[in-house]
Amino acid sequence: xxxxxxxxxxxxxxxxxxxxxxxFKEEPGRxxxxxxxxxxxxxxxxxxxxxxxxxxxxxxxxxxxNHHLYPLLEGSPWVQHCEFWAPRKKTAEAKxxxxxxxxxxxxxxxxxxxxxxxSLRSAWLCFRAGAKRxxxxxxxxxxxxxxxxxxxxxxxxxxxxxxxxCDYFAVLGDALGMEHxxxxxxxxxxxxxxxxxxxxxxxxxxxxxxxxxxxxxxxNFGASxxxxxxxxxxxxxxxxxxxxxxxxxxxxxxxxPLAEAIRDNMDAPSFLLTQPxxxxxxxxxxxxxADLLLGNDTGPxxxxxxxxxxxxxxxxxxxxxxxxxxHGDETIVNVDVPCGPCHKKVCPLDEQVCMTQxxxxxxxxxxxxxxxxxx
Length: 375
Known about the structure:
Blueprint: E1 30-34, H1 39-44, H2 46-55, E2 60-65, H3 70-73, E3 82-84, H4 92-108, E4 112-115, H5 120-128, E5 133-137, E6 148-150, E7 155-156, E8 159-160, H6 165-175, H7 191-204, E9 212-216, H8 229-243, E10 246-249, H9 256-265, E11 271-272, H10 280-289, E12 292-296, H11 299-307, E13 311-314, E14 330-333, H12 353-356, H13 360-374
Helix pairs in contact: 2-6, 7-10, 8-9, 8-13, 10-11
């Protein structure tokens, strides 16, 4: 059973975690949905977002997200009401923004807050904002802040069993009376971003008849996810020679050195999309235009899934099962190693064998197969 509404700042006894469908005396009229903070996780959450809007069709649903992630959902029917996290800084300006966010959330008088992140921060904010029902997974010490705790479905002794993220979010959906949202990822394009990308490719000299191969060589997770730029360059050169491909290298902010290293190690020309880097909205428009997306296990990979772009993804230290979906044309290139998957941001060994044993030949073969079937 859910707890009665409690005022922010009040501590009460924990309610038991639930796996049954929550009951509402009245359907919520104002709902707050807290989105994940990683690019790929937001894309993986889109089936849940779509299902939540279907579950509460008459509610005013507000999305809370990091501001830089807004272009991910721009163009969708879900962004009529958005709030953005204030910076996590101790400056006077940041503290003022944090206070203003809390004031705005309190004024909305949410009937229901749903938290996709597992963070204590998300539960604390929803608690202080006074949301009447606060639903999230009971983990990371935040149980007292939730009125309706949902059992973690993949908890095992010593950690968590890998579970596809779409299925993980679906457990929250089940508690809310939603049907399983499925794992069909959804992204939307905007005319402005489409036109900006087409203009940039035309300016750089990409010909319409050339197969477009997009390289996304970075990974915000850490250096351990990044395949060697020299190997990316060798694969790109072979695709130019074999398929007359146009190679567009699109790094995220801070990943420019990786992209420049690929360009500098290529014999064939390439198109470096920096100065500035593409926005996330423009990156969607680039990837939907591509004949092949080549990269590491990182956010843009999920763009390709949502937009049905063929993909070749190099996997190293991360577990594939966390991000599995049942759709999309993707070839994953990896090797089994005794020490993996370790999920470490930086490899502690002298040689990161999970990456060094992924050869240029392996990745080139996978790319050729994808290009041959898509072009």
